[in-house]
Amino acid sequence: MNETSPGTWLPDRALLRVGGEDVRGFLQGLVTQDLALVTPATPQWAGLLTPQGKALFDFLLWADGDAILIDCETTRREALARRLTLYRLRRPILIEPVEGGVHWSLEEEEGVADPRLPALGRRWLGPGAGSPATGWLAHRLGLGVIEGMDELGQDKTLWLECNAAELNGVSFTKGCYVGQENTARMHYRAKVNRRLVVAPLGEPGERTRTRYPDLGLMIELRRTEALGDAITPEWLSAALGGSPDT
């Protein structure tokens, strides 16, 4: 972990350390991303899904020697640790919260580019203290990038509907993991008929996940042929075969 400058800390993120014998093999059979891609310079965004392919947790994976650090929501860290423990069985794997924090900046040269989208800025691990970062939420939503269970909808949204393929959150070559069968079927049959999108604030409905009145935005799950006034940045527009918002 590196020293950090003020104003970069993301207090809504926390770290979970997964270590022990063949920890990468353990996680490889669980999460959506290929652990072979996780290096000190290349963290990866991934999900832990239900057997049906719906999102339970999303997080970033960081290399930490022979262990893996999971950059997750602070409010979900304990629940994620319990879920991973269920899969551990008798394997000599240690799953524990650790000190430290996640940091972000658009201007710092510290860290690495966010693996989901370089335009999100740079991210690194450091002390879990200091001045909180400002502007992260508005910046992320402005790019149409959705994260966290309030936005994704725990056990409500298929992983590919969370734009996981477009934001580098899934490997289609790594082999089996929880939820892989349905996720791969959707991908190869091009059956992603709904998308989680950021849209201007409106009246909430059944498709609404969460709302941000201070930003004038909300998150909704919409059919691809009826995105309406949703933000459609270049990365999403390319997947849908249309033109990006200007």
From TrEMBL:
It comes from the Bacteria. The keyword Cell inner membrane does not apply. The keyword Transit peptide applies. Keywords: Transit peptide. Gene3D superfamilies: Probable tRNA modification gtpase trme, domain 1. GO terms for biological process: iron-sulfur cluster assembly. NCBIfam families: ygfZ_signature (TIGR03317). This is Folate-binding protein YgfZ. It comes from Sphingomonas psychrotolerans. The lineage of its organism: Bacteria, Pseudomonadati, Pseudomonadota, Alphaproteobacteria, Sphingomonadales.
